[in-house]
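Quick start: load a record and inspect it. Here is Histidine--tRNA ligase:
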Amino acid sequence: MAQAPLQPVRGTHDLIGADFRRHHLVIETARRVATLYGFEEWATPIFEDTRVFSRGLGDTSDVVSKEMYSFEDRGGENITLRPENTAGVCRALVTNGLTQSNLPRKVFYAGPMFRYERPQKGRYRQFHQIGIEVLGAAEPLADAEVIACGWHIQQELGIDEGTVLEINTLGDAASRDAYRAALIAYFTAHRNDLSEDSRARLEKNPLRIVDSKDPRDKALVAAAPTIHDHLTPEAAEFYAAVKRHLTAFGVSFRENPRIVRGLDYYSHTAFEFVTERLGAQGTVMGGGRYNGLVEEMGGPPTPSVGWAAGVERLTLLVEAAELTPPAPRPVAVIPVGEAAEAAAINVLQSLREHGVVAEIAYKGNMKRRMERANRINAGAAVILGEEELAEGKVVVRNLDKGSQERVAMEDLLRTLAETGAVESAMHAMLQGILEEELGGEVDDLDEDFGGETESR
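Running the structure step on this input writes:
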C-alpha cells in the first residue's frame, strides 16, 4: 500500500515559482535601498541562547510565554529558534566587541524567524523578516532616517499607495514613570472589566494593556490616558524633532497615541506602517527606539532605533498590486543531430557569459526539443544543424511571432536583440553590447561566436 505523501509542517510553506520571485523581489529591493542609506548586512544564527530573547522581549510577553520554539539541545543548553532578530543583532554587537568603535553601526538583515502561533494568511510559524537597526545613535534624525528608509523600500516595491505611517512617542524614563502611574490608577478603577491577561499585567506592565487585542480591553483603552499629557519638556522636543525631520524627508504621517511598547528599554519613537489591504493583519512594518536593549545583552548603554517587516505580508501587497516579477524567458538552443551538440554547447555557454538566460534540452529530436522550448516559455530558439555548422550560421526563430532567419554566428547577439524575442532586461543588455560594438571591435563577441565583427 502506497504511503501518503509527506506534507509541510503546519504553519510552514514552500517558496516556488511566483511565490519565490515575489519573496526574492522584496528582499533584494530592501537590500538595495538599505545599502543606499549606508546599512551593512549582518547575518546572525537562527538559534540563540534562550536568554537573548527572554531578556530582549521580556518574560511576560506573549512571544516568550507562549510562542517561542525553545528546547534543550544534546549538550544541555537551552536554545531558542529566533522569533525576531533585533535582540540577536544587539547580542552580536556586544559579543563581537563592536560597542566602543565606529558607532553608530547601521545594520540590515533578512532571514527566517519562528513563532508558534495560529497560522493565517500572511502569517506562518516559520516566517521571514527584513529589518534595519541603527546602533549607537541618540539623535532624533536617526529615528526619522530609519522610517524614511522603510518608506523608500515600500515605494521602490510599488506598494506604498494605501499605506499610512502612524507614529507615537513613549517619552523618556521620567515620562514613562508618570504615564505608568496614570495607567495603573485608571485601569485599577476598571479592574473587574479587564481581561484575565490584562489583570495579570496591571501592576507589572500596564503599558501592555494599551496594546491588548482583547475586545474587553479595547473599550477601556479608548478612554485611557495618553502619554502626551505626561511628557517631560525634553521628551516633547525629541518627538517634535522627529516629526520635523520626517517632514523634511517627505514622509507623511498621522499620530496614534495607542502605539506602545511594553518593555522599559523602549523609549521615545514608536511607529507602524499600516494598511487596510491585509485585513486584520494590517501592520506592514513596525519599530521604534530602544535605548536599553544592548545593555540587556551585557553591553554598555547604546541608544538604538530600528524596524522589522514581515516578508510574507509585503509579498501579499506585491501580489495584490500585480507586481509579481515574470519568470525570465530563456533562449532555447536546439542542436539537430549529434554532430551539432558540441557547437550548441559552445553557443549555449557564450550566451550565458553575456548575461542571456539560455537552456538546452538534454535529449530528443528537434520536435521534442521545440516542444520543451514552448513549455519553458522561451522567447527565441537558436537552431544548429549540419548545414548551419558547415556555413558558420545558425537559425534564429522568434517563438512569439513564428518568424525565423538564418544568420552568421557573429551576428547572433545582434539578431536576438533586434527580434525583440527576449525579455526587456535582456534586450537592454544586448542593446548595450551593440552600442559597444558601434564604437569599435568587440573581441569577446568575435571570439565566442567564431567570426570577426567589423568596426562601425
